[in-house]
Amino acid sequence: MKRLARRFTSLPIRARLSLLVAAAVAFAVAAVSVTCWFIVQGKLYDQLDNDLEKTLGMRGIEAQAEAAVSNCSQTPTPLNSDNGPPRSGYFQLVMEDGTPCVLSFSTGSVNVTQGDKDVIDAADTTSGTFRNGTDADGNDVRVMVLPGLTVTDPTTQTSSKAALLVALPLKNTQGTLNDLALILLLVSGIGVLGAGAAGLAVARAGLRPVDKLTEAVEHVARTEDLSVRIPVEDESEDEIARLSRSFNSMTASLANSHELQQQLIADAGHELRTPLTSLRTNIELLTRSEETGRPIPPADRKALLASVKAQMTELAALIGDLQTLSRSDAGTPADRVQVVALQDTVESALRRARLRGPELTITADVHPWFVRAEPTALERAIVNILDNAVKFSPEGGTIDVTLRGGELTVRDHGPGIPADELPHVFDRFWRSPSARALPGSGLGLSIVARTVQQSGGDVALSPAPGGGTIAAIRLPGAPTPPPALNES
Fold first, then answer.
1. What is d(CA 389, CA 41) in angstroms, rounded to the nearest whole number?
2. How many whole angstroms separate alpha carbon 223 and alpha carbon 225?
3. Range of 112's domain?
């Protein structure tokens, strides 16, 4: 059985559907055919039973029954059609001990069974019982046993119970049933074959979209071409259409991710090239000085070492930003997300910002707000926003920080951002032409945008009235912590 199950599951889905449809139709047809055959059999037997009952009303049966005991051994002589039933019927009297007495107009004798004796012994009515049996020659007959008769032996004048057996041959009835069974078998076979063919056709038509989807997946696996799309009717809402839409959405997301990955690699390579080239040049100068024995002037040597240190610092910061951005692209694991007191995170970021811009005045108006986010990533995003404000603020300038109702705003009084550059400020490695001389990798705001989006919020930069820039971060949350946090 297990082997058959394994072989069945190894078949193509079309073959399995065809077999299942054929099996279901075969079961239904078999059930209907068997039911039909038994219904027809019952109707034919009912008709035979009615014919048997009608024979009791024919003249001559009762008279022959009274004389049956004395002439059982005589050769039966047929009656005229006016006096009794035709010769195709069986008529005999059965005594209480099972002795049959064939009536003179009977076609032949019917084999008596133990059941007939039991009926005679137990009978107290004249209602007949019906059964199938055989005659003396082994032919099948339909028998009606009518108990409740009393027969008196003319010789001994003794009375005994008896029953009248009336039978009709089953040859014609069985022939009709056999013909019906053959017809039903042929019709069932044709129906099953037709159902299998129809099931195969339906499976092919229904699985055609699956074939297209399979071909598309195989094409993507073979060529890595993520531009493949499966045409789907807009109004279709069946499972195949949903699967096709899901596949198209998946390939679109993969294509976008692949494009972003390629862009990140290209941009990272471009950004890494500058500090690496500078490092290589400075190190080569120091190495050549050692190899040739020509010392570099102390001031120049100090400047070279300071440049190497600065380039290494910039390179380390760039690598750190790339790692942070790659983790953001991969998503934030659920076990690292927790309820964060945003006001505490802002206060921590403000302390770091004041250290980096001691000449600036940073004011803060912070109100409680609790959000769900990754604490480290959220603090880094806020630090990046404050770093931008510190970087572009003039010496002695002011930075205003406000946290109210889940909206964090950072307003600086620097030169501001031109309107044509605002759409690009969150792009990776993008830097304003006026800021390319300043330190940085162009990834800070990209990290901010990705972190805020993963926390369910949004971030925007806009020009401030009177000059400068306003950075606004909106995060969903509540002014009070969840009950579980309060309990802890």
1. 98
2. 5
3. 62-170
